[in-house]
């Protein structure tokens, strides 16, 4: 048994999609456990680009089963659109994709509520992806939401939908918003979506547990990143789900005792989209250069990503929360031309080192990162295919990160394509994948 979780060790967009696509070769099933189409995972295979939002990146490998777990929130329109786009690109989806009957459904009302709350003058905007993710999870936790099983039940759905629509109308009236939504039209449209999605819906917890019982291997795919996790991230500037390793169990119904490893994906630097604290953000020309060279623009909203330097205290924290067995360091090639590379090795507040990640809303305001500068390697790494062949200074950089964070680097990525990746010989990662 070697079922693994792959998740983001920073603020998302670490390259999880690429890593999951790469590792899925060794697995039978790939399961998403949280988030929704706020995620955007770009994968290049032989120069061809695929963007996945809701569907696990494992779908790109013929014969692998892709599962959307109960912890995911599903926008039926977005899912159907993604299926159509993948099929148009020659990827077989039907028969390879299962959607949990316990996953909650996103409706247009959720986007409306999100727009209202983000625009409220008394609220600090989170800079969300405007996909209705937060309000859908609110309805789940508030026990009002509609799950896939009831969405595809023709008898149950209309009354449940009307109750939810009424709830949102009451909310809109309370905020003096008189935007007209034609709920009859939405109900009819979503009834049609339900019919189309029904063949994919099943008890995926049972499916996954049976697969594991039968000796199949499952890869759990995290979306977003640890610092966007609802509990452990930079609250309130987070997403509304459990992006950390614990979410893999609650979000799929596979017990922790059946999961044997956790792999953290981190860039060789760091980025963030949306608002919120970011101690190592570089507002100067070096940050602009990282954005330019790394093509740091969001796959979902197209927003420029904020860029900065590798943050050891942050990685140490996310390694603690998730129990990383190994790290994949992506986008090493983006640093290829730098003379020297700043790395944040500690946080100070009022001149004194702090050991804990701040938990208060303004706890990061006074955090000053302490940097060390490492020499750059000034050589292109994008054509390197084995770890031994990386420039010595690039290997020193990776060893330094690993030693400071306290977790091995088991895999390194030097370009967007599937084959621009190398495993570190003898690493725990290699053993976990064997
Ligand atoms: P995810 O959300 O974690 O799956 O990451 P995204 O797909 O949103 O963002 C990562 C971006 O970096 C994508 O455009 C990838 O194609 C690209 N990428 C992944 N790994 C590498 C790498 O090692 N080098 C370079 N230059 N690009 C990479
Ligand atoms: P992947 O899986 C980066 C950010 C948004 C915003 C906050 C809340 O591609 O790494 P939401 O719409 O989720 O309520 O927005 O979270 N965010 C992401 N940032 N990568 C993502 O996904 C993200 N998904 C959400 O920018 O700051
Ligand atoms: Mg992304």
List key phrases describing it:
19 strands, Adenylosuccinate Synthetase, Chain A, domain 3, binds guanosine-5'-diphosphate, Adenylosuccinate Synthetase, subunit A, domain 2, binds magnesium ion, single chain, 3 domains, binds 6-O-phosphoryl inosine monophosphate, Adenylosuccinate Synthetase, Chain A, domain 1, alpha/beta, 434 residues
Account of the 3D structure:
The chain has 434 residues and is of the alpha/beta class. The chain has three domains: 4-100 and 201-261, Adenylosuccinate Synthetase, Chain A, domain 1 (3-Layer(aba) Sandwich), CATH 3.40.440.10; 104-197, Adenylosuccinate Synthetase, subunit A, domain 2 (Orthogonal Bundle), CATH 1.10.300; 266-433, Adenylosuccinate Synthetase, Chain A, domain 3, CATH 3.90.170.10. It is built from 13 helices and 19 strands. It has helices at residues 16-23, 76-88, 108-119, 133-141, 148-151, 157-174, 183-197, 204-213, 246-250, 285-293, 312-322, 392-405, 428-433, and strands at residues 4-8, 29-32, 41-45, 48-52, 65-68, 73-74, 97-100, 104-105, 201-202, 218-221, 261-267, 270-272, 306-308, 326-330, 340-349, 352-354, 368-375, 409-413, 421-423. A ten-stranded mixed sheet has the order 9-7-5-2-10-1-11-14-18-19, sandwiched between helices. Helix 3 packs across helix 4 (133-141) and helix 3 (108-119) packs parallel to helix 6. The protein is globular and about 65 Å long. The mean pLDDT is 95. Guanosine-5'-diphosphate binds at residues 8, 12-18, 39-42, 44, 299, 330-331, 333-334, 413-416.
């Amino acid at each position: 048994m070697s079922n693994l979780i792959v998740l983001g060790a920073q603020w998302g967009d670490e390259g999880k999609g690429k890593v999951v696509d790469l590792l899925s070769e060794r697995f039978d099933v790939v399961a998403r456990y949280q988030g929704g189409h706020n995620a955007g995972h770009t994968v290049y295979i032989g120069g061809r680009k695929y963007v996945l939002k809701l569907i696990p990146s494992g779908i790109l490998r013929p014969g692998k089963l892709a599962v959307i777990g109960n912890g995911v929130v599903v926008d039926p329109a977005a899912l159907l659109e993604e299926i159509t786009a993948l099929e148009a690109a020659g990827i077989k989806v039907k028969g390879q994709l299962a959607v949990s009957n316990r996953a909650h459904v996103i409706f247009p009302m959720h986007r409306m509520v999100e727009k209202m709350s983000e625009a409220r003058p008394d609220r600090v905007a989170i800079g969300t992806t405007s996909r209705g993710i937060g309000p859908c999870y609110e309805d789940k936790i508030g026990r009002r939401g509609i799950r896939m099983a009831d969405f595809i039940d023709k008898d149950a759905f209309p009354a449940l939908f009307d109750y939810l629509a009424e709830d949102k109308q009451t909310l809109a009236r309370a905020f003096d918003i008189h935007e007209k939504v034609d709920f009859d039209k939405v109900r009819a449209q979503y009834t049609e979506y339900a019919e189309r999605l029904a063949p994919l819906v099943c008890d995926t917890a049972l499916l996954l547990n049976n697969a594991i019982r039968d000796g199949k291997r499952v890869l759990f795919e995290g979306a977003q990143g640890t610092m966007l996790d609802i509990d452990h991230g930079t609250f309130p500037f987070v997403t509304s789900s459990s992006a950390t390793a614990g979410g893999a169990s609650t979000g799929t119904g596979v017990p922790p005792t059946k999961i044997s490893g956790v792999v953290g994906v981190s860039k060789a630097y760091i980025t963030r989209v949306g608002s919120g604290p970011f101690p190592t953000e570089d507002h100067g020309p070096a940050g602009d250069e990282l954005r330019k060279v790394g093509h740091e623009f969001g796959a979902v909203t197209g927003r420029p990503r904020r860029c900065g330097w590798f943050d050891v205290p942050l990685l140490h924290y996310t390694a603690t929360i998730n129990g990383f067995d190994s790290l994949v360091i992506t986008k090493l090639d983006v640093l290829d031309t730098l003379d020297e590379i700043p790395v944040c090795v500690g946080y100070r507040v009022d001149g004194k080192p702090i050991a804990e990640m701040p938990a208060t809303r303004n706890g990061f305001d006074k955090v000053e990162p302490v940097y060390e500068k490492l020499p750059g390697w000034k050589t292109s790494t994008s054509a390197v295919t084995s770890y031994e062949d990386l420039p010595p200074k690039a290997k020193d950089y990776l060893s330094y990160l690993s030693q400071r964070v306290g977790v091995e680097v088991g895999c390194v990525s030097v370009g967007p394509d599937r084959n621009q990746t190398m495993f570190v010989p003898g690493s725990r990662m290699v053993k976990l994948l064997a």
